[in-house]
Design goal:
By secondary structure, the chain is an alpha+beta fold. The chain has 7 helices and 4 strands, in the order E-H-E-H-H-H-H-H-E-E-H. Strands 2-1-3-4 form a 4-stranded mixed beta sheet, with helices on both faces. Strand 1 (about 15-20), helix 1 (about 25-45) and strand 2 (about 45-55) form a beta-alpha-beta unit. Helix 2 (about 60-75) packs antiparallel against helix 3 (about 80-85), helix 2 (about 60-75) runs parallel beside helix 4 and helix 3 (about 80-85) runs antiparallel to helix 4 (about 90-105). The two termini are about 25 Å apart.
């Protein structure tokens, strides 16, 4: 278990799961951060927000960034790392893997271990599995949300998506009693 997935919800209630198919070189994903923060603040541990990787071929550093995010999660700094990288997409464009390692150091994570993880590819299978699952359910761009079996495409527009996610989460939570 990493810090992309909270361990538990309220007693007697399972959290509603929101899968967020994301890539860390995507400006639309960066723009979606405010909505994700608001959802996490509103629902707390009743909503499990899971980062799912969907690196796009058009972004040359996206696959390495996904692996770096997994290393950050393993070190306990996953969401902070994701937000830091997404907030500086232009720097990732220019700096690539060197930038990914620098951000880890800025956040107090083990930057040398990041460098090693990017070289040895220890997180490739997680990224590949996420991407394959995304393709299997029809994800074509990022961000894409899946909640309660419904896929919501945020790559075309973020307008109204947070409200739709909130309505679905409220309905699913109410159904649990």
């Amino acid at each position: 278990m990493n810090d992309f997935s909270p361990a538990s919800a309220a007693p007697g209630q399972d959290p509603v799961v929101l899968d967020v198919w994301c890539e860390l070189q995507c400006t639309d994903c960066r723009d979606a951060l405010a909505d994700l923060r608001a959802l996490r603040a509103r629902f707390g541990d009743r909503l499990e927000v899971r980062l799912r990787h969907f690196p796009l071929e058009k972004h040359r550093h996206a696959f390495a960034a996904a692996q770096a995010a997994e290393e950050a999660a393993e070190q306990g700094g996953g969401w902070a790392y994701v937000e830091a990288v997404l907030g500086r997409v232009a720097e990732l464009d220019r700096g690539g893997e060197r930038f990914l390692v620098e951000v880890a150091g800025e956040l107090g994570l083990d930057a040398e271990e990041f460098d090693t993880a990017l070289i040895d590819g220890r997180h490739i299978l997680i990224v590949d599995a996420d991407q394959a699952e995304g393709k299997a359910i029809g994800v074509t761009g990022t961000p894409t949300y899946v909640i309660g079996g419904e896929r919501l495409d945020g790559g075309t527009s973020q307008d109204g998506l947070r409200e739709r996610v909130e309505r679905i989460a409220e309905r699913l939570l109410a159904e649990q009693g």
